[in-house]
Amino acid sequence: MADTFQAVLISRDEDKKQSVEWTELSEDDLMEGDVTVAVEATTVNYKDGLAITGKAPVVRRFPLVPGIDFAGTVTKSSHTGWKEGDKVILNGWGVGETHYGAYAERARVNGDWLVPLPDGMSAKDAMAVGTAGYTAMLCVMALERHGITPERGPVVVTGAAGGVGSVAIALLAGQGHHVIASTGRASEADYLKELGAAEIIDREELSGPARPLGKERWAGGIDAVGSHTLANALSMTSYGGAVAACGLAQGMDLPASVAPFILRGVSLLGVDSVMAPKELRMEAWQRIAKELDHKKLGAIASVVPFSDVISAATDIIEGRVRGRVVVEMPG
Ligand code: NDP
């Protein structure tokens, strides 16, 4: 009999009602791909929470193993770029949405989707960063391309105590930016300061309907929240500034005015991690390895065993997770 391993499986019944269960799979059950990876660590991103709770239609194929990112070791490969023993990271490409994902001890994927684990980074470190942290780096890079240097003025980070927000604060503070952290959790003030936030504001300042133009408070920002929060972040961005938008924790809508764009030349920079080209991914991961303070990463991440992954997915949707959750695989 083939070796079996534990996996989380999302199914849907005839009434389209979604359910989540633990199951045993073998490698024969995995989907098509030219590289098989022993998953050593994965994580719980907001999107994983949406997939497991069914709160948004993230899963587009049933049944499906969820989990949008993992780090591990190649066990089999017919792809020219990878051989047995290589250490790899996977983020996105529809894994955990349309292709069997990380919440199993083995994954089989297209080798083109993988990036090498940077030297000196463990699988657990990589998943402490995870898709949320790698997206934070993509946002930092987008602001840089727009010329948002520390000299231009403060930068705001919304959803500050979450995964994207925490890593964004650590990266921006590390570059010398004056970071204004917007959070709904005043109790996390010390944590956010430890990551490098210079100022903390209550997210309620940004969560109501935005005026077309507000007082110019920051040169740029990273927004993981969307909706009114993004509209307010834009309306308070100073002349020529930019906000990198990657998330929708408050909502997918954008009830904003064009005033910041046409009267202040403000730019809205869209950031997607799922289909980002490989060169950008490689650059982001190499820069994370060099620039993200390891001590701060330790403060950001908590570790849970694989057996707790379903409850952690519910926690993230209910706003109970601080920073990042690393899921350690058995064995
Ligand atoms: P987290 O849940 O870790 O963080 C989200 C944070 O947003 C929360 O911690 C909270 O911050 C804040 N928040 C939650 N609900 C609300 C609300 N109703 N109003 C205002 N603020 C709220 O999620 P992640 O950091 O993993 O992801 C953040 C967002 O980025 C998600 O929407 C996710 O889907 C998106 N994302 C997008 C990617 C892309 O490719 N574009 C990749 C990765 C993530 P606080 O407690 O500090 O107020």
TrEMBL record:
Pfam families found in the cross-reference section? ADH_N (PF08240), ADH_zinc_N (PF00107)
- Domain Enoyl reductase (ER) spans what residues? 17-327
Q: Which Gene3D superfamilies match?
A: Medium-chain alcohol dehydrogenases, catalytic domain (3.90.180.10), NAD(P)-binding Rossmann-like Domain (3.40.50.720)
Q: Which InterPro entries match?
A: Acrylyl-CoA_reductase_AcuI, ADH-like_C, ADH-like_N, ER, GroES-like_sf, NAD(P)-bd_dom_sf, Zn-ADH-like_protein
* Family matches, as NCBIfam families: oxido_YhdH (TIGR02823)
Q: What is this protein called?
A: Oxidoreductase
